Amino acid sequence: MSKLARLAAATGLAAVLAAGVAAPAGAQQQTATSPHNYTCSNQGGGPDHTVNCSGLITVNNVLNGTTVNVGDLNILNGTQLNDLQVALANVADNSVNLPVTVQLLNLENTTITTYLQKFGITVLPVNLNICAGSICV
User: Fold this and answer.
1) Which of 24, 54, 73, 93 is the most exposed place for a label (fewest CB within 10 A)?
2) Who's near 46: CB < 8 A, 6+ residues apart?
3) How confident is the model over 53-60, as a mean pLDDT?
4) What is the pLDDT of residues 26-46, one digit of tens each?
5) What's the pLDDT at 59?
């Protein structure tokens, strides 16, 4: 699915659902733990806030150094960071034999789904930057 098609789908979904909660201007960095050496944390605050997830997301190093950056005003609490981390690790472990670009798209879809279903926050693909080395989606 092209980025434009994903954007159109997410925009349509956003029109149907209420957008998330506005975050306070200042952000405290919070991290969560994972069985993988992969962590998610809040970075910055206000309009420059991002949620960054990075590290070794799969047990066999296929996506070593993968980063997921969510440009969003919503600051996640520790439980939310952990939920995102677990969801990303689970989808990464379940798709280790797929091409890297497919794995990255699976991470993108999981991020969007987790934000919407678990946190009630709509995130558009345009606000995501997901990379494994020099390969980004």
Assistant:
1) 24
2) 25, 26, 27, 73
3) 76
4) 333 334 444 557 889 999 888
5) 60
- Reported residue count of the chain is 137
Beta-bridged to residue 52, according to DSSP, are 41, 69
Residue 100: both structure tokens together: 């890297």
Confidence of residue 20 (pLDDT cuts 50, 70, 90): very low
SS (H, E, C) the chain: CCHHHHHHHHHHHHHHCCCCCCCCCCCCCCECCCCCCEEEEEECCHHHCEEEEEEECCCCCCCEEEEEEEECCCCCCHHHHHHHHHHHHHHHHHCCCCCHHHHHHHHHHHHHHHHHHHHCCCCCHHHEEEEECCEEC
